[in-house]
Write a structure and sequence with these properties.
Layout lengths: L14 H6 L11 H47 L9 H12 L5 H17 L4 H5 L3 H30 L1
Helix pairs in contact: 2-3, 2-4, 2-6, 3-4, 3-6, 4-6
Length: 164
């Protein structure tokens, strides 16, 4: 008996693949979502210099919209539900977190750690969002993780500020 054919993935040079995998970052071995989140923090440094929190928020919105389109095309071509190489959602979620935090080393580190924790632990309603079909399910769970991370990092920063 023959095994079912393996789903094909779009080639990296395809525009949807370039966006969905953040230029191929999603193909890095071991924890591609963490690599994408780390890259998002590095890119946010330039965004902050260009326009502060507003530039980061606009970049998060743009990554979300472009990501939804690219992920839709990528999923349609690959016939997979949520391939691990799709990391545009981590980029958008991490930027969403950073848009709410005071920018600096402490804010970036707390925002990065909080986002990764919420993206991995997935408290409610993240699992429900993740089960939504198509691109929305791939992207929305990371945006919710970004909001949870922003809220928790804001509280942590307030506690740190009160203690120092």
């Amino acid at each position: 008996m023959n095994a079912p054919p393996r789903p094909t993935r779009p080639r990296l040079w395809h525009p949807a693949a370039l966006v969905a995998t953040v230029g191929g970052v999603g193909y890095l071995p071991k924890a591609p979502g963490t690599w994408a989140s780390a890259g998002a923090v590095i890119l946010a440094i330039g965004l902050d210099q260009a326009g502060g929190w507003l530039a980061i928020a606009i970049a998060a919105a743009a990554a979300t919209v472009l990501g939804l389109i690219a992920v839709h095309v990528y999923l349609r071509q690959s016939a997979l539900a949520d391939p691990p190489e799709i990391v545009i959602d981590e980029l958008a979620g991490q930027w969403l977190t950073l848009a709410f935090l005071p920018f600096g080393v402490v804010g970036c580190v707390l925002g990065f750690l909080a986002f990764r924790i919420f993206d991995i632990v997935k408290p409610w309603p993240i699992p429900w969002l993740e089960r939504q079909s198509g691109a929305w399910g791939v992207v929305l769970d990371d945006l919710m993780a970004g909001l949870y991370a922003a809220a928790s990092a804001t509280v942590a920063l307030a506690v740190i500020d009160a203690l120092v």
